[in-house]
Amino acid sequence: MKVLVTGGMGYIGSHTCVQMIEAGMEPIIIDNLCNAKDAVLDRIEALTGTKPQFYLGDIRDEAFLDGGFNQHDIKAVIHFAGLKAVGESVAKPLEYYDNNVNGTLVLARSMRKAGVKSIVFSSSATVYGDPEVVPITEDSPTGQTTNPYGRSKYMVEECLSDLFNAESDWSITLLRYFNPVGAHPSGTMGEDPQGIPNNLMPFIAQVAVGRRESLSVFGNDYPTPDGTGVRDYIHVMDLADGHIAALKAVGEKAGLHIYNLGTGKGSSVLEMVDAFGKACGAPIAYEMCPRRPGDIAECWASTDKAERELGWKATRSVAEMTADTWKWQSNNPHGY
Ligand code: NAD
Ligand code: UD1
Q: Angle 136-140-143 (CA atoms, 0-180°, nearest 5)?
């Protein structure tokens, strides 16, 4: 089965392509490489023995997308392409809405023309804002977002829901990721952030490998067991498998399908620091700092719905997340 994968050269997309090939699917990648390197393609080939078809281009270029759909018998689309840095989105809201929201509209229009009406969209737990209760179920309120990135995810969810309300033959799957971390267990593929990492795991990994002196822990006065923020970290390989499970279970069923992809378990910043220290064999230097504006105290997923309806459950532990990240980071200290 041919599946168009937008943003397939990026962190989550590349791991998903590997798992798709292992599962007998044929990913066709579109990426403009604004946040990825073309070396990723060789790494996918080295792991799977298959080099996926790759088209360099932008999802906002409708003629380019139309060409791809004309050339291949695409059955479904997994839509990863987008910009994802929260701080940058505050400084560049127009760029974020254009890429993430407009980009999705152009893609959906091109899909409709080609008669491809199955899409799996990369959404985020950020659409839940600061949750009133944890674990967060899929019917928890959404929309209380705190930044343009989060709003762009919420807006796309709303646009795609409206599309389904108008045209009920679409299969639209919104996957709300919690905190994706980790790397391929081979140590040949992983997250390769440009500049100073915004997120916890890549920052810890760069401290471990000696690229940064110490981690700033943003707040130790949250109402959590050790005072630091608690998140639901999910191994990127589990996340990748979740996409395949979603395609198989609901990709051919008309409907608006919404699932959390998380583990159902929260870990604090200090627990992650400790786990990483064990993985790399040396303690991670850190200092306590004030809270980061916009952060919430704690957030983890209810995983019941995905387990019940997709037959999918995350299985990889925090120890595997840190060990695989360390393998990737130590083998590739400067990324790809
Ligand atoms: P990433 O930046 O590594 O991958 C995104 C890919 O999309 C990159 O390869 C980039 O070059 C490409 N891209 C961006 N804009 C494009 C455009 N207009 N046309 C073509 N290609 C374009 O990010 P990721 O971590 O792999 O995230 C994938 C998706 O998952 C994103 O939509 C992101 O918002 C979402 N998401 C990520 C996280 C996370 O923590 N990583 C959490 C929740 C949701
Ligand atoms: C952030 C984004 C969210 C996005 C997600 C995945 C914000 C407010 N939210 O989530 O929209 O979907 O990334 O890309 O940015 N931490 C430190 N020191 C650091 C970095 C992080 O202590 O240098 C702490 C944070 O305070 C938080 C935890 O680590 O408690 C996780 O942070 P991070 O990895 O940035 O993810 P989120 O904030 O959950």
A: 115
